[in-house]
């Protein structure tokens, strides 16, 4: 009996040792913690708190480089609890997080025009990534916010600046990433949820040919430190490019896949103007050529034909040819998605249009979904729920009704309302993110740094009530459309 007891104690000792724990101390793994001395805050990523909590009352201190002593007794570690610790005479709040932890150290000023070298660390569930990145600010309106979004390019080193691919969780393997600061969205979840809804509701029409192709960007919420100061919640986000969509590469036989960004309100992206084009220029009518650009020449030939058909074609020409040039199933999904979100900035710009190869139809890819679900781009509340967003293309599709567009639109709405667009599904997505960020005190540390005068409960109530009202109006609208 005594021998078995000794063996059991030895096993327990080995288990605790393997987890970096002695009888009195918990040691954070390298890269798993960051300390903000200015705000007296420690954020520690540890996904496996249950195994550590096996020691319960035995914990008296933590080792995060230096020793931090418990201020109060600790019965159990939890992601929902803030722990008071002290280092010498200085008091700190210790937060445990399940979100990936990113630390960026940069010695020079960050600007919008040139990537500067920085050291980058990512930690999630024992996965540690340490590398060099080029970093710059991104955006237009977002550049005016105190908390800025960043473009990251992963490099093999700071001298050669050769690109280097990384993958994070279920995201793709790539060298270009975005850290979206989410500053103008008070709950920090709208664009994250919106992008997830699009991925859930729509797949590329060529998915069987390209199993890894995505219909839009994916992202994960992370917590960021910059130069040892907490920088808050961000979304680590993929970029829309040829690789994400798995468009066919051009070759010596000609142009295959194409990708254009709707970047400004000049009439092309809203299908209201179709001016002449010149392939010498990377911009046309509000679009930017993203892929391909060969020997400094763009390729507007086919996109201009599509836009001209919508803007200038007769009703007969439009009815007979639009379904040959545009993927109507994708177009219907994009229209319904934009109207569900009430994405007011995503029909005249802020989307991509692409095609898989030269024989394929064009399709839409959503982008920059920060002004959705009851707010506009600056974060201001716009409580309107009783309107329909449209542009020249969608107006004409509804009026001319090619390929039974109207009935297909209504049928798709009714189908989505039973699944992805159901009240239960949509509210569950909101609740999942909101409850996690609230209960695990992510909002608490976020708004310690970035002040918010309105309570999270008020923001949550506004969002959920807005969504219910929006769904009620859209149900009535599509029911009326079905009857007419």
From TrEMBL:
<keyword id="KW-0946">Virion</keyword>
<protein>
    <submittedName>
        <fullName>Spore coat protein CotH</fullName>
    </submittedName>
</protein>
<dbReference type="Pfam" id="PF08757">
    <property type="entry name" value="CotH"/>
</dbReference>
<dbReference type="InterPro" id="IPR014867">
    <property type="entry name" value="Spore_coat_CotH_CotH2/3/7"/>
</dbReference>
<keyword id="KW-0167">Capsid protein</keyword>
